[in-house]
């Protein structure tokens, strides 16, 4: 695990989310940074149901009403502030929470350098 600068806070809408990858090679780690009600959260972009990335479109993590995160594969929804699955095939499970901080407008996340380290 190491700390990565993954985004500028100003680049993320509120509410909104931005995807990022860390490391390189064939199996980069995929994550997301979420802005929600004045807070910044980071999660692995790995659905607890089947391990798919949540989004199909770039940065497309929110439901149309902007109240939940959604996995496009089978429709699981997640609370933006905790990553708890609130509906769907993995209800009660949680997105993997990543340590996250904002410093001088930059968003830093502690994450693995590869999907193989998860
Ligand atoms: S992989 Fe996310 S709901 Fe099935």
Description:
The chain has 118 residues and is an all-beta fold. The chain has one domain (2-117): Rieske Iron-sulfur Protein. The chain has strands spanning 2-8, 16-22, 29-36, 39-44, 69-70, 77-78, 85-87, 97-98, 100-103, 106-111. The strands form three sheets. Strands 2-3-4-8 form a four-stranded antiparallel sheet, with no helix packed on it. A hairpin with a 6-residue loop joins strand 2 and strand 3. It is globular and about 35 Å long. The termini are close together. The model has no long low-confidence stretch (mean pLDDT 96). It binds FE2/S2 (inorganic) cluster. Residues 47, 49-50, 52, 71, 73-74, 76, 88-89 line the site of FE2/S2 (inorganic) cluster.
Q: How is the CATH topology named?
A: Rieske Iron-sulfur Protein
- Please report the distance between the alpha carbons of the first and last residues: 10 Å
Total number of strands: 10
The chain-level mean pLDDT equals: 96
Radius of gyration (CA) equals: 13 Å
Q: Bin the helical content.
A: under 10%
Shape: globular
Continuous helix count: 0
What's the helix-strand series? EEEEEEEEEE
Largest sheet: number of strands, sense, barrel closure: 4 strands, antiparallel
Uncertain residue ranges: none
Which class of secondary structure composition applies to the elements?
mainly beta
Q: What is the domain tally? A: 1
Walk across the major sheet and give the strand order. Answer: 2-3-4-8
β-sheet strand percentage = 35-45%
Please state the second-level CATH architecture: 3-layer Sandwich
- What is the CATH superfamily? Rieske [2Fe-2S] iron-sulphur domain
The first-level CATH class is given as Mainly Beta
Bound molecules: FE2/S2 (inorganic) cluster
